[in-house]
Amino acid sequence: MKIRTPRSRWLALLAALPAALAPSAALAQNAAASTPKIDTGDTAWLLISTALVLLMTPGLAFFYGGLVRSKNVLATMMQSLTAMAMAGVLWIVLGYSLAFGPNLGGLIGGLNYLFMHDVGLEPSPIYAPTTPHLAFMAFQGMFAIITPALIGGAIAERMKFKSFLWFISLWLLFVYAPLAHWVWGDGGWLLKLGALDFAGGTVVHISSGVSALVEISM
After folding, report:
1. What CATH topology corresponds to 38-217?
2. What percent of the chain has pLDDT over 90?
């Protein structure tokens, strides 16, 4: 004898089907939301911010040029402008990798991004989930440029041009890059302690101010 399922039982099963599928749908929605995807608005704003920070260094050159004697105006302005070139190249070659590469003990980044390896137009899940990784690198590079340029105000008329080039190159790699990783890099030990760096107050201003004070005290 064949037993038939009552119609009410089938209706109950159909009514419970959406609830059974809801967790799967929610998981799929969360997975889609966590997948890095470029947002045009975020990218445009990041590029505008990058340009604004870039303009700060030439502005700094004119400001410092007005603080020194007329015979040192050109040399002082060239210090800031040359810092843009030197720091920009060093940031692309090694600095960005040391600051934002995979964490090594909370102290420094690895060399995975050396010479911009794996830094392209794809978003970075860690640092730039809605913008190209390359745009994030350029934005951070502008701060790496202006920070050593800030020190130039303290050593104006006190350091030879050649010595200044050596100084900013070594300072960027051995002071700025590790400090940027501590505060901004994923896994940095200061970041783990809950450090909040508003507008580069620690990485940019405190580091350059303390370095300038040490420099003029020597």
Report:
1. Ammonium transporter fold (1.10.3430)
2. 49
